[in-house]
Amino acid sequence: AQLDEGGFTVAVFSDAPSPDLVLAAGSRLRHRLPNATDLGVQRLLLVADLDEARAADLAFLARQLGLLVNVEDRTALCDFHLPAIVRRGDLVVAISTGGQSPRLAGRLRLFAERLIHRDWGARLARLGLLRAELRTQGKRPHEIARAVDAVIDGEGWLSPR
């Protein structure tokens, strides 16, 4: 979903897709695993729901073709780890466990989503406008910081509920 939101072209391959994957992938789904030709036009490979041997073979092929690889729950096969993301407009909070526990990262994301409500995007926009206005008035950084703190504290945005 994050790749779609980022405007990337996503191809989905599975030789045994679940009904949920079929629904989510739609017309992008290929009912097989990717081959060298498929991977040759990609830059990134995300692997999930494959046994260790097939995941390792696919990761090896992808690396030979210059792709970055992430294999779900196989840290040794990963070139990078994907953070769990909470996005509220321009406010982005990333949670990572360095690949040690994607499940924990996902659970923390759900927890953070309850804390960081949807209105935080508008709150950030408000602070951005305030900051821009104060900068045009020639305010110094410490004055801007104080003004931003005054809004955050005055509105009780970070007060325990």
- The average pLDDT score comes to 92
Helix content class: 40-55%
Number of strands: 6
* Anisotropy-based shape: elongated
Structural class: alpha/beta
Poorly predicted ranges: none
Rg value:
21 Å
Provide the β-strand percentage band.
Answer: 5-15%
| Number of self-contained structural domains | 3
Question: How many H/I helices?
Answer: 7
- Helices and strands, in order, run as HEHEHEHEEEHHH
Largest sheet: 2 strands, parallel
N-C termini distance = 31 Å
Strand arrangement, major sheet: 1-2
Describe this structure in words.
- About 45% of the residues lie in helices and about 15% in strands.
- The longest helix has 17 residues.
- The strands form three sheets. It has a two-stranded parallel sheet with strand order 1-2. It has a two-stranded parallel sheet with strand order 3-4.
- It is elongated and about 60 Å long.
- It is of the alpha/beta class and about 160 residues long.
- The protein folds into three domains: about 80 residues, no CATH class; about 30 residues, Double Stranded RNA Binding Domain (2-Layer Sandwich), CATH 3.30.160; about 35 residues.
What key phrases describe this protein's structure?
161 residues; 3 domains; alpha/beta; 6 strands; single chain; 7 helices; 47% helix; Double Stranded RNA Binding Domain; two-stranded parallel sheet
Layout: helices, strands, pairs:
Layout lengths: L1 H4 L6 E2 L5 H7 L3 E2 L5 H5 L3 E4 L4 H13 L3 E4 L12 E5 L2 E5 L6 H14 L4 H17 L4 H15 L6
Parallel strand pairs: 1-2, 3-4
Antiparallel strand pairs: 5-6
